DNA sequence: TATTGTGAACGCTTTCACAGCG
DNA sequence: CGCTGTGAAAGCGTTCACAATA
């Protein structure tokens, strides 16, 4: 690198590692905050701290975009904001639809992060006819029947699925059929899509379970040799079926109200 | 492995790769579905398909837990459900608090995935005094003042932060101070925590930005040599500050209502 | 025979450490 | 001198392909 900067720093984009792409939004956020405080330049060390990564990683990441820094000085904040925004495709307008306006869908519609940075909610779509026309986040709910026309009319290529698990695949199919090629899935299901369609999933229950794993680890380290195999079945792998010792949750008097148990775990 | 199965398949847990841990909940979900359909055994191929991974990966993952399968047959569904549940720490009760009951917090409180699998909402906490006592998901909202006592009284070690970005670090500090050691963060900020505290973040805006990157890629591949550098500033890295070409979003007549623009990107 | 369990190869990601340069 | 940019090394994670075995 260093030498030979050709005339197109633009489509040098070929082959930015996925791990780097996933961090660019983080850097962008930190840079935006600096920009708002009118900080003109920032070192890799400072920016890395703000983004919660280490500086070597950050420098390596930026090296995939080009040589945008100045040795001995750091990075120009505004310039980097622009370059990263462009790299991420945020200098253009991305109409999105949100399908499934329950608690979560409504939260998403009201979430500022969607409206900012080039994302624009083209429509909120729900299957419940009784909800059609109701206003959420300033937008009228549209019925699922209109899904295809909404997508085509608005040139929507990004869809957000916030339906119950059972409806997700079907909604997904219709989105893809209508032309959506990127999907953000909040429903706790594995979606099957054709090649060329990207799916990212956000799964609250999975995140909690990962935390529980580590939490258990911590607890186990203290007591260590405790936990002499609770009442675990030492059943031979392919013998009589073993059942989880049923619900052994203590419902803690007075705090287990009517929490819906959808069991999407 | 194979040979020498010692008496404690239990705390063989040492050193399960993080990537594997992150997939265990996925397998568990697929297995639970099979269990509900009373399917007795499943092959790595079938289970992998249901979980959306390839079978080699699944077998490797399971190999870290122990030899729970039967060659020529497959895995006993119930037995695996139990083993994975135990590995993840889901056979015990995990009281959690959710802090910040806005749109998102309420959605989380109502989300079935929280209530299932050993997670129990110990309390919903919000800073707004006007909200205190209001019922959400069958639980009364508690005021932030009670945060410490709630955590101590209930032995809460997992906290969910769904506050605005500005309040997140402060809430986090109080949670950690009171004894929480695992945090699921929905606020778009980097949280700083002491060693020994786990943080996982869920960031809607980041996921969308990653999708936008790939989406842009796809579009670029079609038109390819098009996009001759929109109006990009070829500014020398450390020269005069470059500003993003201001808002060039077309507000698409009639659809840019009062969407809050919090800009947490 | 069908399918698991796993060494070994491969590829991606992170980290190191320092040359290059303003 | 200070800080970026980057080869090279180290560390993980995935995939291959096949020996082990119920």
Could you give the count of β-strands of chain A?
A: 10
* Total of DSSP H or I helical runs spanning 4+ residues of chain A: 9
Largest interface: A-B, 127 and 128 residues
State the end-to-end CA separation of chain A.
Answer: 48 Å
Shape of chain A: globular
Main beta-sheet annotation of chain A: 7 strands, mixed
Classify the secondary structure makeup of chain A into a structural class: alpha/beta
The total number of structural domains of chain A is 2
- One letter per element, helices H and strands E, the order of chain A comes to HEHHEEHEHHEEEHEHEEH
What is the residue-averaged pLDDT of chain A? Answer: 82
Portion of residues within helices of chain A? 25-40%
Strand content of chain A: 15-25%
The oligomerization state is homodimer
- Order of strands in the sheet with most strands of chain A: 6-7-5-4-8-9-10
- Taking pLDDT < 50 over at least 5 consecutive residues as the criterion, the unreliable ranges of chain A are 1-13, 224-265
CATH superfamily of the largest domain in chain A: NAD(P)-binding Rossmann-like Domain
CATH overall fold name of the largest domain in chain A:
Rossmann fold
CATH architecture verdict of the largest domain in chain A: 3-Layer(aba) Sandwich
CATH class of the largest domain in chain A: Alpha Beta
Rg calc of chain A: 24 Å
What are its keywords?
265 residues, transcription regulation (chains A, B), 2 domains, homodimer, DNA-binding, Rossmann fold, alpha/beta
